[in-house]
Write a structure and sequence with these properties.
The complex is a heterodimer of chains A (about 500) and B (about 625). Chain A has about 500 residues and is mainly α. Chain A has a domain at about 280-470. Helix content of chain A is about 75%, strand content about 5%. Chain A contains 21 helices and 2 strands. Chain A has helices spanning about 5-20, 25-50, 85-105, 110-125, 130-150, 155-190, 195-200, 210-225, 235-240, 245-270, 270-275, 280-300, 305-325, 325-360, 370, 375-385, 395-410, 410-435, 450-470, 475-500, 500-505, and strands spanning about 60-65, 70-80. The longest helix of chain A is centred in the middle third of the chain and has 34 residues, at about 155-190. Chain B has helices at about 5-25, 30-55, 95-115, 125-145, 145-165, 170-205, 210-220, 225-240, 250, 260-265, 270-280, 280-285, 290-310, 315-335, 340-365, 380, 385-400, 405-420, 420-445, 465-480, 490-505, 515-540, 545-555, 560-595, 600-605, 610-630; strands spanning about 70-80, 85-90. Chain B folds into 2 domains: about 1-505 and about 520-555, no CATH class; about 560-630, no CATH class. Residues about 60-65, about 500-510 and about 600-605 of chain B have low confidence and may be disordered. The chains are: A mainly alpha (about 500), B mainly alpha (about 625). Chain B: This is NADH-quinone oxidoreductase subunit L. Chain B: Keywords: Membrane, Transmembrane, Transmembrane helix.
Chain lengths: ~500, ~625
């Protein structure tokens, strides 16, 4: 068993262990969850540290026959697209479980088990190299997430969870059909029916034309709903606001990334021509999402909805960078996935800490909280600054590269999106201002500053904010070779597609 | 070689001060906080001074890119993606060292002044932490070797400006003013950011040396790329340096502590835009249309803000409008290509405006925070030394020889005359208004009846606050020597020219007969302004005026109202509408479309049971059917 299988298996084992512990032994249950997720993070950190930056191909690969009769393989691997996302996911789970221990009283057993199952699903999604295996993990993170919202959420949790489920299942259903169709196409080209992605990509699929467009749209629908892309986002405000903040953090930080990751992992190599053809449309949607989300965030009174729309606005930048289809923009999108996970995650954690103290989610219920909780105010300020892309913090690196690359490909989109940076400053400073500044509201002076456990959760995130902001090289270096190869293959496949599918099929020249 | 070490120390020492006071300031005594903060800045200033000594001493290594002596200090590669490479690089040359000395010198004085001014404020450690972070950012801004690295300092000083304006954050006006400053300057920074992208497109880099060297080859004179690049960068400069129409944040920024107003909103940060244009003068010279616009914006801002200062009742806000007006002179200077004159005025303005603010701070300190001049008056008897200091600053601002402000403003005006006579005329008119408004401020504050009566025990500030004022007063008096000499160019210009000449060509300086007339004219206007001010505000023999004009002035030509009605209101309304529409229209449209896409609405309605287990079962059955099909195949 290689390290990647351990990453998937450990949370399952932890969940099993938690299932064996009595439900009234909350401390033990939380300890099982925490220890498991810390071990998972240790392995993920090891994988990240030992990942060879210069190589474009998959590393730490694990192959095993799964259902050979239908071309299913158990194939795991990480490359530049996924290695940092795996590390991010593994980093956030112990923090989320730690925060949950402080913010969610009771029902620890169910929570720990469900969260660990979710971790398996999320890590598997980023590592699976077989289309069906990916689909299994993809759905595997949907079900625990549904329960986390539906069982631990706020008063409106039931409809919010159902809407989330319906939306994502609609997308998943389309993707399921499309991935079977892709396997068919692969069989036509290679003469072998398989769902193994590297095998399918060994030679250009040469789909082309409307067929490629339809399959691209089916995949993209699933990914766009997860991100979410305007106008498929209307599940988000309810789900983000109704879920407990620690769960929202996992929704925004990891699950949204799965959508963006899917575009790069599947759509770009499988449907390069459609990626190019639909680029303008999706860039327009991205710009709308950036500005629309930013404007609405500014008008929100509920801090969770403010952060939810802000998160959507920031995901627009990632989408914009992906469809600029050049190296700076793609690198920017990849590093921004990590940044968004760190910064938005930290914002939701802080929102959770505030709500746990006061029971208020409406920002108008706050004011002057910085007087009684200066450390919390400082932490919130740093995180907000990273989210509004202040140079020196992580957010700047990503948005700078995205906008720079987009400016080269689509100047108009980049100019419009650049105003999203002003919008981000507007709603994030409004968030800070309404809560921490102004006359001190009743009861907030004695609200209590960050406790040591809370500091232990926020300090790692703040450390990453400055590390990536000042020295992003380790992250950028890990993904550059893969992104380069991806773009080169996409360009080659486009050329092949223009020469006609028969040439590509007959010639069998792999790029 | 000492230069790289010194160059790195200059920004990192205050950064260390920030870290120390920011993390542990709460546990330090006031004394320790003050020693850490002032010590860090003093050390940084000493490093900058050593840097000056070193670059005068050492021959430049190899061929210097900008045509003058310059040293490049590479720290590490910051952002890299293919051909896009941004190293963290410092550039040490006469211009950056001169700026570092101004920033460090004025910064040190204001740190020392702050020890007395902020004594007794519970947020003292936070204040000095922010102030040190500002120094680090500002040093970084002036020493950065490329546009992208400069942007770190550029936004960093903006952040500190926001933090320090909103320092007393429980006051709603202070919190709002901080946000306003951040957002308005960030609007300009969109231009700066896009300018960086254009620079990458044109030069493949944003390195100042390369941009200066290649500007002639890569930018067609008056071409679209040159004009776009210059205008985008100017948008950033106009935001940071509070030029029309982005000036609106600076008067409100006076909500911050007064030493902050002196340091950030008069002497250093707000001049960053001028510095950036001078730094990239080779690029700006390729865009004559943009240069004309910069000069025009500067001239119009100079007279507009001077007029606004004329009716402002708040002492600090008078000085804020005065700063906007003086920054306008600097942009006028760089717009007509008089780059070293711009830096000269930047320097002398840093001295006399910091002095004015510190004197105003001493007044506030004595009056318990009062800034409204309608409740002042007659303070000359109570605060004789503060009055003298303010008077020196005011005379320099008014352009009375032989104070520094006279030399630097006069140099700008004569350069403007050579470029376009109307710019000179506007500049001279603004100079007249300047003399009037500063005399008005002086008269309302220090002369006339003592409105406070026996109420207070107002007295001159303690030595820790007085000493920086006297040093600045000395610099205000002597600062003219930096730019004046019997034969142009002066010391500062000769020093700067070694770095500036490359792109700019030899400075066009005819001198001769016209010069004397111009100088006489501007001195006459200044004196006339003072006389008019004296008659109106002291002797009160000229009353009345034009009420309509006064109304227009006191509303600053309704520019802020236009923003509120034309920009902020509609955006806010749009955002509110969108927020509601998102929950109704967008949601309904998507859900409706999803239903319509289902081929048979009736058939699907039966499946829409709302039970999770049914949906899960559907998915499972679907997957099993597909698998079964393939297994049996």
């Amino acid at each position: 068993m290689g390290p990647l299988t351990w990453l998937i298996a450990l949370p399952l084992l932890g969940a099993a262990a938690a299932a064996a512990v009595g439900r009234d032994r909350e401390r033990a249950l939380r300890m099982v969850g925490l220890v498991t997720s810390v071990l998972v993070f240790a392995i993920a950190a090891l994988v990240w540290g030992r990942f060879a930056p210069g190589a474009a191909s998959l590393q730490f690969e694990e192959h095993a026959p799964w259902v050979p009769g239908v071309g299913l393989v158990y194939h795991l691997g990480v490359d530049g697209l996924s290695v940092s996302l795996v590390a991010l996911t593994a980093l956030l789970f112990p923090l989320a479980l730690g925060a949950a221990a402080q913010q969610l009283a009771g029902r620890a057993k169910g929570f720990v088990i469900t969260a660990l199952l979710l971790e398996t699903g999320m890590l598997g999604t980023f590592m699976a190299q077989d289309l069906v295996l990916f689909y299994v993990f993809w759905e595997g993170m949907l079900i625990p997430m549904y329960f986390l919202i539906a069982l631990w959420g706020g008063p409106g949790r039931a409809p919010a969870a159902m809407k989330f489920l319906l939306y994502t299942m609609a997308g998943s259903a389309l993707m399921l059909v499309a991935l079977v169709a892709v396997a068919f196409a692969g069989e036509r080209i290679a003469g072998r029916f398989t769902f193994d992605l590297p095998a399918l990509l060994a030679r250009p699929l040469g789909l082309g034309g409307p067929y490629e467009s339809v399959l691209f749209l089916a995949f993209t629908a699933a990914f766009a709903i997860k991100m979410p892309v305007w106008p498929l986002h209307t599940w988000l405000p309810d789900a983000y606001a109704e879920a407990p903040p620690v769960v929202t953090m996992l929704l925004a930080s990891v699950m949204a990334k799965a959508g963006a990751y899917g575009l790069l992992r599947f759509c770009l190599p499988l449907f390069p021509e459609a990626m190019r053809a639909f680029g303008p449309l999706l860039s327009v949607l991205a710009v709308i999402g950036i500005l629309y989300g930013g404007a609405i965030a500014w008008a929100q009174g509920d801090m969770r909805r403010l952060l939810a729309y802000g998160s959507m606005s920031h995901m627009g930048f990632i989408l914009l960078g992906i469809f600029a289809l050049n190296l700076p923009a793609l690198q920017g999108s990849l590093i921004q996935m990590i940044n968004h996970g760190i910064s938005t995650g930290a914002l939701f954690l802080i929102a959770g800490m505030l709500i746990a103290r006061t029971g208020r989610a409406d920002t108008d219920g706050y004011g002057g909280a910085g007087a009684g909780a200066p450390t919390l105010a400082a932490a919130a300020m740093i995180v907000a600054l990273s989210s509004l892309a202040l140079p020196g913090t992580n957010g700047f690196i990503g948005e700078f590269l995205i906008l720079l690359g987009t400016f080269q490909a689509r100047p108009a989109a980049a100019v419009l999106a650049a105003f999203g940076v002003v919008a981000a400053a507007a709603y994030l400073l409004a968030f800070i201002g309404r809560i921490f500044h102004g006359p001190v509201r009743d009861g907030l002076a004695s609200m209590g500053d960050l406790r040591r456990e809370e500091l232990a959760i926020l300090v790692p995130l703040i450390a990453v904010i400055f590390w990536v902001g000042l020295y992003p090289r380790p992250l950028l270096a890990r993904s550059e070779a893969t992104v380069r190869a991806l773009l080169a293959n996409a360009a080659a496949a486009q050329t092949a597609a223009r020469q006609g599918p028969h040439v590509a099929a007959g010639g069998g020249t792999s790029p | 070689m000492l230069i790289p070490v010194l160059a790195v120390l200059v920004p990192t020492l205050p950064l260390a001060g920030w870290a120390l006071n920011g993390l542990w300031g709460g546990r330090f005594t006031r004394r320790t906080v003050a020693i850490v903060a002032c010590g860090a800045v003093a050390a940084a200033f000493a490093a900058a001074a050593l840097l000056l000594w070193q670059i005068r001493l050492a021959p430049p290594p190899g061929r210097a890119p900008a045509g003058g002596p310059s040293w490049i200090v590479d720290l590490y590669s910051w952002i890299g993606a293919g051909s896009i490479q941004v190293p963290l690089r410092l550039l040490v040359d006469p211009l950056s060292v001169a700026m570092a000395l101004v920033v460090g010198g004025v910064g040190l004085l204001i740190h020392v002044y702050s020890v007395g001014y902020m004594d007794g404020d519970p947020g003292c450690a936070r204040y000095f932490a922010y102030l040190n972070l500002f120094m680090a950012s500002m040093f970084w801004l002036v020493l950065a070797g490329n546009l992208a690295a400069m942007f770190i300092g550029w936004e960093g000083v903006g952040l500190c400006s926001y933090l320090l304006i909103a320092f007393w954050f429980t006051r709603p006006a202070a919190a709002a003013a901080g946000v306003k400053a951040f957002l308005v300057t960030r609007l300009g920074d969109v231009g700066f950011l896009l300018g960086i992208f254009v620079a990458f497109g044109v030069f493949g880099t944003t390195d100042f040396g390369v941009m200066t060297r290649d500007a002639g080859a890569r930018l067609a004179l008056g071409g679209g790329a040159a004009t776009a690049l210059a205008l985008l960068l100017f948008a950033g400069a106009a935001g940071k340096s509070a030029q029309l129409p982005l000036y609106v944040w600076l008067p409100d920024a006076m909500e911050g502590p007064t030493p902050v107003s002196a340091l950030i909103h008069a002497a250093t940060m707000v001049t960053a835009g001028v510095y950036m244009i001078v730094r990239l003068h080779a690029v700006f010279l390729r865009a004559p249309a943009a240069m004309d616009l910069i000069a025009a914006v500067g001239a119009v801002t100079a007279i507009f803000a001077a007029a606004a200062a004329l009716v402002e009742p708040d002492l600090k806000r008078v000085l804020a409008y005065s700063t906007i007006s003086q920054l306008g002179y600097m942009f006028l200077a760089v717009g007509v290509g008089a780059f070293s004159a711009g830096i000269f005025h930047l320097t002398s303005h840093a001295f006399f405006k910091a002095l004015l603010f510190l004197a105003a701070g001493a007044v506030m300190h004595a009056l318990g925070g009062e800034t409204d001049m309608r409740r002042m008056g007659g303070l000359a008897r109570r605060l004789p030394r503060t009055t003298a200091a303010f008077a020196i600053g005011a005379l320099a601002l008014a352009g009375i020889p032989p104070l520094s402000g006279f030399f630097s403003k006069d140099l700008i005006l004569s350069e403007a005359f050579r470029a376009q006579a109307w710019l000179w005329a506007v500049g001279v008119a603004a100079a007249g208004l300047t003399a009037v408004y500063i005399l008005r401020a002086f008269a309302l504050t220090f002369l006339g009846a003592d409105l406070r009566g026996a109420e207070g025990t107002a007295h001159d500030p303690p030595p820790s606050m007085a000493a920086p004022m006297w040093i600045l007063a000395g610099l205000t008096v002597a600062g003219g020597g930096l730019g004046w000499s019997f034969t142009h160019p002066g010391i500062l210009e000769r020093f700067l020219l070694t770095g500036l000449r490359a792109g700019a060509g030899p400075p066009a300086r005819a001198g001769g007969a016209g010069e004397g007339t111009l100088v006489a004219a501007s001195v006459l206007v200044a004196v006339a302004g003072i006389v008019v001010g004296w008659l109106v505000y002291v002797r009160r023999s000229l009353r009345g005026g034009v009420p309509a004009l006064a109304g227009l002035l006191s509303h600053r030509f309704y520019i802020e109202e236009a923003y509120a009605v034309g920009v902020i209101g509609p955006v806010r309304a749009l955002a509110r509408v969108a927020a509601v529409a998102d929950r109704t229209v967008t949601d309904a449209a998507v859900m409706g479309l999803a239903r319509a896409l289902g081929r048979s609405g009736q058939a699907l309605r039966g499946l829409e049971t709302g039970y999770l287990r049914h949906y899960a079962a559907f998915v499972l059955v679907g997957v099993l059917l597909i698998l079964a099909y393939w297994v049996s195949r």
